[in-house]
Write a structure and sequence with these properties.
24 strands; five-stranded antiparallel beta sheet; 0% helix
Amino acid sequence: LATGRYLEQGTLQCFLLKTDVDGNKVFLKTYGDTLQHTTGYGLAIALDGNYVVTGSSTLNQNSFQDYPDEFLMKTNTDGDTLWCRSYAGTNIEGSENGSSVVVAPDGSFAVGVATFSYPSVGYVPNKHCVLKTDKDGHMQFMRAYNSGGSHYPYLTASKGSDGYVLSGFSNFYTPQHFSAMLIKLDTGFHSGCNEIDETDLTTESHMPVTIHEPAVFSSSGGILINSTPEDDFVLDDTTLCFSSLDSCLIINQVNELEYLSGGVSVYPNPANEFLNVVINVNEKSNCIISIIDLSGRIIFNEEINLITGNNSFSFPIAEIADGTFFMRIISEKETEVKKIIISH
């Protein structure tokens, strides 16, 4: 089985190709319509032996020039559609696409979604999301795992343990460059932090596809080449969050933070009534300072105008409950996320 997109008279249509074990075509069918774009990115075999395909489509938009929605489509083993559904964010009409789909043990489906819909923090709104549906494709929840700066999510079942893995890359946490990112999800698709429920901001619709069987020309060719391994780089490992359910994990001391171009000090840490931040920058700029709890909820957010040199700020935190939090400082060039402790 293979999926992707098929160009026909200037229109991109999702295709499903089935071959036998020798690569001979069993069928090739396309799904879409004229003046629209539909692309398949991921597929899986359902527990009943039928096929599910996910991707992006403008079939519920005015034309191919509009932002696409993610879709999930189920076909029988002959490629005939059993149901087709699309899903879209409502508060911001942005691009969405389903990059991958997995089948849960109960026969339901989960789709890895790349989107820049939904509320964002920072300058790059791209997000990692998971769309969970029942076995008939009806939405159960849409969940985001960050507020921006993350790209190309891919969802797979965890190998050797229960749960799932959401992979991709991001420049939200390391703004100087893109970094690979792995998010381990439990069987309920919970990561333990940085989760945002976007279900109420997501709609589900029927996707009206038309099916075609285009002519197929088969050929062979090309050569295989050996891959060249790289041996001159070093990978760093950074932990973005941890499970607060780990009773063996006790944090009682956090060092002051030093980061951004000219340096930042955050004190005291642990903090009580006020949290003081001193930011030294080399030129005028703006930044956004946020305090985020372990569930990913932003409990404090303020935009600050910075002048050249030292900038001192004091934030009241008496109304914030005791616990471990993340402080995120987003400047025009950099972003840093560190742990802070509040203890009254």
